[in-house]
Amino acid sequence: MAKLHFYYGVMSSSKSAFLGINAYNFNRTDNRWEAIKPSIDNRDSDTNIVSRIGIVTKARALQNLDNYIPAPATQFILVDEVQFFKPSDIEKLVQIADNSNITIFCYGLKVDSNGDLFPASAKLLAEADEIHQMETVCEIPQCTNMASHHIRFDSNGNIIRGGNQVEVGASQYKSVCRKHFHDLYNGKVSLIQICRNQFINGK
Ligand SMILES: [Zn+2]
User: Fold this and answer.
1) How many Å apart are CA 27 and CA 82, to the nearest integer?
2) How far is the CA of 174 from the centre of ligand 1 (A)?
3) Cα(33)–Cα(22) distance, integer angstroms
């Protein structure tokens, strides 16, 4: 039985970069690996995982894992944007780790922009052997808290509440701490007020 790891963190917490560093190290040690991602994530490329700091990892884009079979002799599987898979896909990864003895590293978001768990991430929190948090600081100017939530907003800086959990690239997001998430989500403060107009284009 191999280990199933879940690395969760907010957007911009370097998850895809760490995935790429793992792949780089596996190449150096001659380990067989492959990377997969949900095909819903076509932000940058259909076949590559591209981190925000430019590390590129070759990957297979898959709609689901129903018919997924790792290539022969695979020792490690790297999964990007794992939150966009379904709980049944996570069950498939559990089977692969347990029955094929392949170590699996999953990278993804824990909660959506309403503060709710993604179903796949909930399943991973229940099943993973190792759970790791990727830390980064809250994106509100001068805040020193760790970011744990995402706030979604339109081009005028108005907070978008509810809506589709699976959306890539359409809205703007900020990774914020729990306090700022609740203050903004509940309308206690406005984004323009606390960001001094720096929110446009995610800045
Ligand atoms: Zn904050």
Assistant:
1) 22
2) 10
3) 10
How many A from CA of 23 to the centre of ligand 1? 32
151, containing H or E segment: strand 149-153
Q: Any residues with CB less than 8 A from the CB of 164 and at least 6 apart, and which?
A: none
pLDDT at 203: 45
Tell me the mean pLDDT in the region 50-79: 93
Residue 70: C-alpha distances to residues 34, 66, 97, 145 (Å): 8, 12, 11, 40
Contact between residue 167 and residue 44 where contact means Cβ atoms under 8 Å apart: no
In order, the DSSP letters of 39-70 are TT--SS-SSEEE-TTS-EEE-EEES-STT--P
- Among residues 42, 1, 8, the alpha carbon closest in space to that of 124 is found at 8
Positions marked catalytic:
81
pLDDT digits (tens, 9 = 90+) for 88-123: 999 999 999 999 999 999 999 999 999 999 999 999
Q: Which domains can be identified in the chain, with CATH numbers?
A: 4-133 (3.40.50.300), 149-202 (no CATH)
CA of 172 to the centre of ligand 1 (A): 17
Q: Report the alpha-carbon angle 72-78-84, nearest 5.
A: 120
